[in-house]
Amino acid sequence: MTTHTYKLDTAHSAIGFSVRHLVFAKVRGHFSAWSGSAELSEADLTQSRVEVSIDASSIDTGTADRDQHLKSPDFFDVAQFPTLTFKSSRIEALGGERYRVHGDLTIRDTTREVVLDSEFSGSAKDPWGNDRLAFTAKASIDRSDFGLKWNQAVETGGVVVGERVDIELEVQAVKAAATRAA
Predict the structure, then answer these.
(1) Which residues contact 172 (CB under 8 A, 6 or more apart)?
(2) Taking the C-alpha atoms of 39, 43, 45 and 48 in order, what is their torsion angle to the nearest 10 degrees?
(3) Do the beta carbons of residue 19 and residue 144 sit within 8 Å?
(4) How confident is the model at residue 182 (pLDDT cuts 50, 70, 90)?
(5) 8 Å CB contact between 42 and 4
(6) 33, 40, 81, 131: which is deepest, by most CB within 10 A?
(7) What was the pLDDT predicted at 147?
(8) What pLDDT does residue 152 have?
């Protein structure tokens, strides 16, 4: 089975997340510095593999003070754990263009299996002749499973930060140019 290498196009992709704040509201954010690649079997996407590396210090929620707290030892501890990674382990077809991508997510030196509910959005040749593919994916994780345990109770009941983090991905990938033998 033939596979092709694709580079994830970070300029046309996004890794976002949301988490409950004070139980009833959501705070959204994203990571602005990351890279990744995929070995894709266009004939059978279940035979593909994906790897992503995220610069934890690139977290951006739109509030500088909150971002600094998220980078601190209370959360990501970017000084000690600068990178988050995801490596797929298997992909299962669900029918149509839907897939489940199973893989290992590592945050703060803790690795847990995560399942991304994914959908193949399509493919096209861009104006410069590059082959592109696009995917959408979602997952939810329990942040405490990865050592992100800081919280604070509030007077009215509940806590400042929810445990569940919803992750949303919009990804474009560009087929790497074939290399020629010399």
Answers:
(1) 8, 9, 12, 13, 132, 133, 134
(2) -20
(3) no
(4) very low
(5) yes
(6) 40
(7) 81
(8) 66
